[in-house]
Amino acid sequence: MFDTDWIKLEVIGHADTLQPDVFGLVDGARELTAQDFKVFPCTTDDIVVAEKLLAVGCEVLMPWGAPIGSGKGCKNRFTLKAMRAHFPRVPLVIDAGLGLSSCVAEAMELG
Questions:
Q1: How far apart are CA 13 and CA 82, in angstroms?
Q2: In a 3-state reduction of DSSP, which class is residue 103?
Q3: Rounded Cα–Cα distance for residues 88 and 14 (Å)
Q4: Do residues 29 and 56 lie in contact, with contact meaning Cβ atoms separated by under 8 Å?
Q5: Residue 8, phi then psi, degrees to nearest 5
Q6: What is the pLDDT confidence band of residue 31, given thresholds at 50, 70 and 90?
């Protein structure tokens, strides 16, 4: 319909917090990359999960800055900086928890 092979993948694990189900996310990403989609996985800021997503074929990581819908900004700057350092050539898109434009600027300043 949109003539693209990009797909944003969110697998919700907890109905109240909307925290991702990272195990289902890796499984879903594996299946979709096998079908030649370019998967943009919405994940936590966990480096181990990120490595597994890259291993199944994801080329972009979309960690959250804070829980979905919370508007709390970048709650754990250390892990986001660690992800940037650990994956220097992988595009990172902060996907959730950014409520203000100043939060977006802060995320961009992290690299």
A1: 24
A2: helix
A3: 30
A4: yes
A5: -85, 125
A6: very high
pLDDT digits (tens, 9 = 90+) for 33-42: 999 999 999 9
Catalytic annotation, pick one of 8, 72, 75, 81: 8
Judged on CB neighbours under 10 Å (0-12, 13-18, 19+), 40 is buried
Average pLDDT, integer, range 18-43? 94
> What pTM was computed for the model?
0.83
| Residue 52 annotated among the catalytic residues of the structure | no
Read off the tokens for 4.
């693209």
DSSP sequence for 24-85: HHHHHHHHHHHTT-EEEEEE-S-HHHHHHHHHTT---BEE-SSSTT-----S-HHHHHHHHH
The single-letter code of the amino acid at 32 is L
